[in-house]
Amino acid sequence: MSLTLESPPAEALTACDREPIHRLGTIQPHGFLIAFRIADGRIVEASANVPGGIERVLGRRFAEVFPSLDGLLPRDFGESARDGAQYLRTVTLETPEGLGAYDLAVHCPGDLGSGDPAAGDPAASDLAVLEFEAVPNSLASEHSLDALYPRLSRFVEGLHEAASVAELCDLVAVDIRHITGFDRTLVYRFDRDWHGTVIAEDGNGVLPSYLDLRFPATDIPAQARELYRRNRLRIIPDAGYRPVPILREAALADAEPLDLSQSILRSVSPVHVEYMRNMGTMASMSVSILVDGALWGLISCHNREARRVPLQARNACDFLTRIFALQLAAKERGAEAEQRLRLGAIQAQLLGYMAEEENFVDGLLQHPDDVLALAGASGAAVITSDSCRLIGATPQEPEVRAIYQWLSSGPGGADLVVTDFLGEAYPPARVFAARASGLLAISISQKYASYVLWFRPEVVRTVKWGGDPTKAAVPDPAGGPQRLHPRKSFETWKETLQGRSLPWSRAETDAVKDLRTSVLGIVLRRAEELASLSEELQRSNKELEAFSYSVSHDLRAPFRHIVGYSELLRSREGSRLSEKGRHYIDTIVEAAFSAGTLVDNLLRFSQMGRNALNPVTGDLNALVEEVRRSTLRDAGPDRTIHWTVGPLGRVHADPVMLRLVIENLLSNAIKYTRHQAEATIEIGRLEAPTTGLDPEGAPSGQAVFFVRDNGVGFDMAYVGKLFGVFQRLHRVEEFEGTGIGLANVRRIVERHGGRTWAEGAVDAGATFYFTLPTPTPVPNPNAGGRSRSPRNSREAR
Predict the structure, then answer these.
(1) Is residue 52 over pLDDT 50?
(2) How far apart are the C-alpha atoms of 430 and 432, rounded to whole Å?
(3) Is residue 794 included in any domain, yes or no?
(4) Backbone angles phi, psi at 700, to 5 degrees
(5) What is the phi/psi pair of residue 505, to 5°?
(6) What is the Cα–Cα distance from 271 to 264, expressed in whole angstroms?
(7) Whose CA, among 103, 180, 453, 566, lies 20 to 30 Å from 634?
(8) Are 326 and 347 in a shared domain?
(9) Tell me: the pLDDT tens digits for 712-751?
């Protein structure tokens, strides 16, 4: 019979994180292993230390070699998957060396290798693996269930009394060390980067304390962590052991080594054995702490000398750890649930505040304490392309705007950005790390770049590592392939962490995500309401304009008839009328003229919203001069009016509508200064600020024009009525008019995107302002030529 020794490829040992530690092809010598096919019961692999020699078992049926054990095996282990080996019982075997007691366990390999069963490849058939762990007679009684039960019972009672996670960890460390008798037991917790920190410890002083030390993720690489998750318990009784090879039939020579992911006798990486020796421990045991199926941490036990712990004691430790993990999960869930309830209440308050405000952002800004409490932050900002509002301790506004630009151009595509090391993701943040080392950001618009940002300050911490975590691998002195060698020193190595904040909890990130969802809901609902209102308003405006046009158009003819027939009556029958009758006719004519004028103005007002704008660029001084000369004809020859017209420049507007604006404003100025011995009317231009609104309300980037007079003025208490339809501040007996002129002015200016407002005082004159867009400059082809200077003023009588 030819035999093949299982051995992994040489290059597999060149890097710890690529080492196939579940397929090393060897086991530890404190037991033996056999593997047989479930289909036919034939043994195809066995460890070299099987009692009686490998030739006695390999190739034979399991029932023939171990007739007394055949009835113990489960019949469904090919159908029911388990993590870890299933302990069956302690059995007594007769071997060439005499009777021996063994703890018997069974499992199926984690995966079955490659091969096609249809092609008859024997490596592809299902296997069952049996492991026989020798039981030392001296340890059997002290680790029986009767001996362990009192401690297990006290442990369960203590778990219910523990008030915190720290107390739970201390309790499990003490009890597991007592059960196993190891020199030191550590409770080791992984962080999100898979670095591990010792958070609890119990020891007898033989080995140094590792409490509060951190160990880098490279000490337990990813494939090792996966094995810890799948196989909860592992023991190395003697780090000085010599691995026992697993032998196989020649037909399996090309198949992968047996998968020992769930094995209890699995040999460990030579790198790990060297690591143990450097640590000064010759025996170790680890129990995985699983919370919701994920690897939370490890219970790691060490002994200076070699030490065997029987399977019953290890099973008790596994049982304790499972109960501990359940209580741990309950504690953590309880703390998280309490935090979520608290943050949920804050979020509900903020939503209520936002719903009460016209602009939901005001609901946030007016309650800064709740905004900060929602994320446990020291500062916050609400920022869009147009505004930046800061709350609490934050970077300076230019720095926050720079973060906004970074979010908008980079990670801003995400709905949520979370980091407790902002300086790493965004290097300029290192300058203001003291105020903002942590950033939690949510986008509050699906269309525009708008964010709510929360900041946390830097928390400088000193981390104690169990040795230098950055030490590089040492090349193989024998000149072979470079291998990773474990560090030899575990002396405390301190590192100061800067530029980091306290991490954001899952409850905090979920709370701001929920806030974002609610904000988007409010914005969407408001947008739908505004869209509905806008549609209704547009429909109402169209109906009103159509009605006004129809009424005013249809009324013109009756008023013409009234005037016409009244004139005929006065001219043909006037001699027969008394003086009072002629006065009645004059009153009818005057009233009909006024009504006709009112109808014409109404018609014109309704047309303002119906006619399309045809803006062109032109000289406003020329238009004002033309309108000024026209209105002077109605002023009367006995009026003295001093005109001052400044340089008005060029504007971009509809010339017909703009003429109506100028006519209304100049006519009003002439009309309301008629009682002045000398009237003064000034027309000028101001430049609006380039950002925001000026005090009078001018939009940015537009020119402000004004018409000022020294007439009767008005009371500013009624300024809101000036630009309304049919709104008059003076009696018709004093000053004629229909009250539509200024309404036309406002409507025309607003259609151009401008604003109107007024200032005045009783008997102290009035000033009317309006704004218009300035035209885009066009390059002057005669830029080198002589320019004409505008006239500064003109006076006319």
Answers:
(1) yes
(2) 5
(3) no
(4) -65, 145
(5) -80, 160
(6) 19
(7) 566
(8) no
(9) 888 787 777 777 655 555 554 455 555 567 777 888 888 8
